[in-house]
UniProtKB/TrEMBL annotation:
Enzyme class: hydrolase
Stated family: Belongs to the amidase family.
Species this chain originates from: Mycolicibacterium rhodesiae (strain NBB3)
Name of a matching Pfam family: Amidase
Keywords: Transferase
Stated name of the protein: amidase
Amino acid sequence: MDDRDVAFAGAAQQARMLADGSATAPALLELYLERIARLDPELRSYRVILADTAREQAAAAQARLDAGERLPLLGVPIAIKDDVDVAGELTTYGSAAHGPARSADAEVVRRLRAAGAVILGKTNVPEMTLWSFAETVAFGATRNPWNTDYAPGGSSAGSAAAVAAGLAPMALGSDGMGSIRIPSTWCGLFGLKPQRDRVPVTPHDDAWNGLTVNGPIARTVEDAALFLDVTADESGFVAAAAKEPGRLRIALSAKVPLGVVTRVGAQQRAALDESAAVLRELGHQVVVRDPDYPQTAIAHALSRYFRGAYDDVQTLPRPERLEARTRNFARIGGLISDARMERIRASESQLTERVTSIYDDVDVVITPGTALGPSRIGAYQKRGAIPTLLLVAARVPFQALFNVTGQPAAVVPWGFDGNGIPTSIQLVGRPFDEATLLSLSAQIEKARPWAGRRPPVS
């Protein structure tokens, strides 16, 4: 492999290379540091590169490798989204309103370190992780490596841009309203929103009133499964990804949940239609059938989202430094009382039961990954909170509902739109059934490989 091939090999393959001695942890880290220095000034995927501490970690990992020690991610660099705590570093949430450096790792970072990962840096996000684009006064605009005129998605914007451009083999993302699946779609990656509580969010438990989960943004299904094996309370996800799924009953649905005004673009619809043919060729039973989306589902999600933003802003030491749009968004969330939020949370089980009733007849539901492609850089400048929300929601209507239900959902890369931006399909599984999603995604990956695709900025 040349250096570029190594950079795009993915976390699982790199772990094997480190274990068999065909690569060293310090050399692998330096490869990424060189690429970041050369390419990231254009992309701005990282807020900060932790070069000094990463070099120390890589050297220590190599000593352990030389001594014969084997851990799942020993020596593999990992990027961390900047809403997750890393000891000794700021957690800025994309804002100048942040507090001091954190004294301890978030639990998910602790588990990644325990698996041997080298923490490479912290990736850019929209202010308070609110949007599907990351363009902040504090840290600038993060760009899509497939077409730098466009956003990479969000809120895990920098994590997806970094993995897509070969500036990290894998990244930690979080997903409260689609924030792993949206940027994974538009950056041509495999992104998995795990079942709620599968991967710890401690010390930010119950973030956004239970909507938010942590999960992987990865080049391959195996990489994402490996991430789950080392961060979740259960294991066996790599084994599940390697297992044939058997003949599944799969429902295809392009229905937009009630409350969002949009249309599904031609390329996004084509991805869904083409997937039907591929899945049938793989031996699956495919039907067109829509989940039973309650009329109140989007309002339910938005209430938890707005109130979550309000709660997050209350923790900031310098909220006056927030951008006006963010302050207004949080102000709306403050209108949702504790009593109302309790009633909304109490209605979750009934809503979930209705949405998941489709799994009485099918094993997996597939939707378009997004309805449309990403926005151009600068498209939302000087727009207020509600106008921005309406425009964003029209692009990404298929995500938030499954944060409410808590069930796992993944996006599988598919084709490209007219702007050269990747498209995807979204696979939604039964509650607690990441195993089927991983197995089916790996089968699609074999039939339609995507990991070898390289964006223009790479």
